[in-house]
Amino acid sequence: MKVKEIAELAGISVRTLHHYDEIGLLSPENTTEAGYRIYSNNDLEMLQQILFFREVGFSLKKIKEIIHNPSFNQNEALQLHRKLLLEKRARLDRMINTLDKTIQHSKGEINISDQEMFEGFDFSKNPYEQEARERWGDKAVDESNARINKLSDSKREALGKEFDAIYRDLAAIRHMSPDSDEAQAGIKVWYDYLSKVGNYSLDAFKGLGQMYVDDERFTKNIDKYGEGLAIFIRDAMAEYADHNRR
């Protein structure tokens, strides 16, 4: 099957498939003499795996690490997808039930308790923290959390304001070259800020920047400060890490 046929079948864009090929996530087994990508049944199965992983919140980089690992077992992965999707469905069902009750409550048809108002909501697990633990280990994250927890409320608030100021400053120069003096000065401020709350090696710093682009949750939040900011920060962080390793 050609790329357009695959895109229509899977409900994704041709550009997405091209991107998967470019980053080595899913490269078709064959190409025609004219350069057209030809996808096999094995490619289709791999694409399904990728989309399942995306549905449950994995970044493209993490998916690549998993599915190209020699120990990757497709059947085990399918069982994992099923388990995670069932858990997600159960949580959504609880939230829909809460929503229905809230609608009835707003119409005066029933009364609901404070506890019932929040059934189905669970923010106790931070997906970003989990990703960080998987990438850099528990120790670095635990040390970062310990430092933050020891801070007073006023200092935590000050850190929040400093974070916001840094991102606003970076957004203002996002149209410059990531290796420019201005960009590198701004990204050093970001590195110094992260060093206050954690212990980031240059490799971890560079990896964090890549995750800003690989994980659409990060990209969406960062680009609220300015379109294209996540890519700019990623490139500037990579340049900073590579330059300071020399």
Structure report:
This protein is mainly alpha-helical and 246 residues long. The chain has 3 domains: 3-67, Multidrug-efflux Transporter Regulator, Chain: A, Domain 2 (Orthogonal Bundle), CATH 1.10.1660; 74-118, no CATH class; 127-245, Antibiotic binding domain of TipA-like multidrug resistance regulators (Globin-like, Orthogonal Bundle), CATH 1.10.490.50. It is built from 12 helices and 2 strands; from the N terminus they run ααββαααααααααα. It has helices at 3-10, 14-22, 41-55, 60-67, 74-106, 127-136, 138-150, 153-172, 181-197, 202-214, 216-222, 229-245, and strands at 30-31, 37-38. Strands 1-2 form a two-stranded antiparallel sheet. The termini are far apart. Keywords: Activator, DNA-binding, Transcription, Transcription regulation. This is MerR family transcriptional regulator. Pfam families: MerR_1, TipAS. Residues 1-69 form the HTH merR-type domain.
